[in-house]
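pasting for ref
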Amino acid sequence: MPISLTNLLSKYIPENNQLERIWILAKTDFKLRYYETTLGLIWAFLHPLIRMIIYWVIFSYILNQNIPNYGMYIFSGLIVWMYFQEATRKGLMILRSKRYLYENIRMNLYDGFTSSILSTVIGLAFNIFVFIAISPFFNISYSFHILWMFPLMLNLAVLVFAISLILVILNSFLKDISQVWDVFLLGMFWINPIFYAKALIFETFPSLMYINPIAGIIVNLRDVLMYAKAPDMMMMAFDWLYALVLLVIGMLIFNRYFHKAMEKL
């Protein structure tokens, strides 16, 4: 990071107002993701839409998945999965990507993570807004149950925050952890009910729905957004339990090894 840019950031990112600092970092991070592209922020909409169309064609016409409103079914799963994948990959690299901030600005140790999570939550909220906006064209209606999307989104964000705290420390000591995490994500991608009905696997192995918090969030958010149903409360309780336990573990690990991790970079 050039000294001039570091000085510029040091000048414009406040040291005393934590909320303002987090918001500025999150907003800047979100804009920079698409800054050098021709279409800019339009990619925030096009990326999940293009993936939805590709998977819809493959699974509807080639693999013959007979699910009503299958395009929207895929979209609802991709909304959760793409956020989880992007946010954990970014979280894993926080100490490297924001090292210059930790070294030059007085800030809370968690501010880098909070701003990163917030920037990806902006993208998550945008995708959900698009989903809701186009839903009437697919005869999808809503009830007051749609308000459940907020605790579900918060659950997902807390889970990502917790996992990122653990991954970023591992990444400082084990240089191959990013490749290992990519392989893990690939496996998770195919065992979550993104493309197929949850009954295909989870009626045979029902415990998988409760030991895999991402699957639970996908199913619950889909019920809220597509079927005007309340979420499965037991499943949501398990998902929150996983998120909070991992958050405590992540904070303990991060607080203990942060300075050693910075020395390793």
